Amino acid sequence: MKRVLTVLFATGFIVATLAGVSAAAYVVAGLAEKHLFPGASRLSNIIFLMLVFVMIIATLLTLAERKWSALMQDRVGPNRARIDLPGLRNRSLAGIPHILTDVLKMLTKEDFIPGTANRFLFKLGPILAFAPVFALFAVVPAGPSVTVFGHRVDMVVATPDFGVLYLLAIASLAVYGTALAGWSSNNKFALLGGVRASSQMISYEVALGLSLIGLFMAFSSLQLPAIVGELGLAGAQASGQAQYLWRTEGAFDFGVPAWGFLLQPIGFIGFFAASFAETKRAPFDVPEGESEIIGYFVEYSGMKFGMFMISEFVEVVVLAGVTTALFFGGHHLPFGGEWLASQPLMQEHGWLYGTLLGTVFWVKVVFLIWVQLVIRWTFPRFRYDQIQTLGWKILLPLALVNVFVSGALVLWDPSLRALAVVGMLEIGVLVVLTMTKKAEAAEGGAHGAHGAHGHDHGHDAHGLPSHASATSSH
Amino acid sequence: MADSHTFDAKGHNPDTDGSLPPEGSELEAHLQSKHMVINMGPSHPATHGTVRLKVELDGETIVKIDPEIGFLHRGFQKSCENVTWTQCLPYTDRLNYLSAMMNNFGFLNAVEKLIGLEIPERAQYIRVIGSELHRLTDHLTCVGATGLEMGGFAPFLYGMEARELIQDRVTELTGARLTTSFGRVGGINRDLPEGWADKVHKTLTRTEELLVEMDGLLTRNRIFVDRTKNTGVISAEDAIDYGWTGPALRACGIDHDLRKAHPYWVYERFNFSVAVGEHGDNYDRYLVRMEEMRQSISIIRQALETIPAGPIIVDDWRIALPPKPEVYGTIEGVMAHFKLVMEGIQVPPGECYDATEASNGELGWYLVSDGRGRPYKVHVRAPGFPVLAAVPHIIEGKMLADLIPTFDTINMIGGEVEQ
User: Fold this and answer.
1) Any CB–CB contact under 8 A between A237 and chain B?
2) Per the structure, how many domains does chain B have?
3) How far apart are CA A104 and CA B286, in angstroms?
4) Which domain does B244 fall in, by range?
5) Residue A283: which of B151, B219, B251 has the nearest Cβ?
6) pLDDT tier at A287 (50, 70, 90 boundaries)?
7) The domain spanning residue B138 has which CATH number?
8) Measured between CA atoms, how close is B389 to chain A, in angstroms?
9) So where does this one cross the membrane (chain A) (predicted)?
């Protein structure tokens, strides 16, 4: 009971904090526009979105991961580090001192460079691993464009026309860091890790791009803000994921929103699996594979190792952010969005409206981060040739079929309804396939070694069943 | 430039000879490829205990693997020759340190066979209970570690939780967590503690729950199945040729369990089945171990319900220490105590081989006595040794990543392999 209350309190606290920081982001951006030059809000967005939100969530994620994995594994989790001050001495403070001690440890450890390593590339490795994932968030809109202090404020750093292409291009740069780290440390295990990282990248990168094509066709854009869409206010046509496929008439809008995961479930699963591989976390942690080859960063110590570690967590946040923007309607509410936007209070106080929807965005992000944590702590590791099989033989053909089917459906019915019907059918098939497998397991589980061999390898046909079950069951 | 290139290609180079294509044009780049030798161990996350695997890799394919043992060598056999039969017991703890009681009881059983001694029924029951408890801890560790080393941390911790509970019960019974040194020649040195049976029942119930969790996380897990199925395959013939026993052999489809084949103690009174696999791959070895754990739980429950009252050690002062009142009160007691402690049990001259079904297979003891009260020779047939010896046969030509689950599921224990 106490644990439930603690979790509820923590959830509320997280949501409140997200709302607070969102509000601060909008107000500061508005002030910057007002007192500095036009476009200054983009600079303040760099600070708020990339430094405050992404970095702090990534830092807290190191703790959240330990806490959540502890919950999953029936442990208590980090509670040993204490602050030796009166009143704090006997409190674990939810493990937050562990973050501080982690940082202290990494900053003060010896920064060791192996004698035979290529010093320049060795130092370049962590930077190349960290910088690209950090830069990814620049094109992800984290809230609506509103008017604050009489100035237009967008909650996004940059809105290039080639938005998603920028994501794909920069994301694939990150593998250089890993490969270089593995190669330059002149260690056989690290080299294996680096080679594995490259092979993994090759196997999922194509599927990653292809799985998004259907989405581009549905929303006719590569720009993330356009895919997220604008509400249809004052008679204007709603665009992107803000539009409804079917809706009720009336002041309070309610209906089925055109969110990406409804239109493109196959694309979503493919993208999520492929970008999960990008984060190099279990089940795709073959470059690290700590029980096999120890990892590409085996020779790194101190903060250089810390860069690799934190870049993994930053990738988790960025992946959640991108997935939210592409497939979960970005900052839009599933219903009632137009009603909320038309409220006089919201129209008067743009920052309040922005704060509310910004919080919606970050809550979705936190939810997707949680999904990733659950997956991370549930599955064992793939073998690297199995990842290639998954990428080339399963995800790629699926994504190709998806492109053609989606293209035909978008041409046939530009209102996207046909696409959504097919998408929901696909979701239904996935759920049914997952469920039937569970029923089989319940029957077969009672048998001994003989009984369990009924498991065939043909279940791959519907993509990534394990992920489907993990994502669809929440 | 072209000349030097051709010259290089023609020149004798041990690294590339035989792997180069025939002389081609200048445009054909001759990529020199050579095998990489890496050391897995003696200190490596995947090597249980301390074993060194010298692995020669072609890319990620294992060309050659050379398991090198000896890092845990303690001179077990020689040490035993210098102490009395009873004093050998603590040395046997350190053989398979995950299931010490099985080593204890196996050794005692062999000594009793050499003497020609029948131990009391209650002692036999306690030995069965102790053995099966430690079979559980051993398999829990093995299955948990398999999950852990393939990246799934949760099953490992579930396994550890169950193991800790069982270790607590073992501690209550024997007084030690790992190095139990339990039992004496002729029976058992202490009886079951009061109320212990109920606690064991509770522990087993919790263990069953945790087994369900582990089963749910691993058995039907797509990735786990892909990683373990058809990897680390050995045929039944090869397994027999290598001398495999225990769960690893049964996973190949051979129904051979000493508890059924040559029942010892009171095993034939219990209703249990032997888990047998089919393909001899990692997945079958995992399934066999999971099923054996369920059978062990059933055996312990049956034993606790049917255990008879009675003495726990033979009433023979040449073998078992006399009761303390006799030692303090009678001259015969003092003398028997003194003789046993100073000279040890006078095992008659002779030799014998005796084997019990330990958690990883046939734990055999070849004992030679010259009648001096000390072993002349103690040889252990450790089940892990033949299993480890077959690793090169299984894994050569396969992937490096396959080595991990294979090494996990065969469950080589450094302590018994290297003695």
Assistant:
1) no
2) 1
3) 42
4) 76-418
5) B151
6) confident
7) 1.10.645.10
8) 20
9) 47-64, 120-143, 163-183, 204-224, 256-277, 313-331, 351-373, 394-412, 418-436
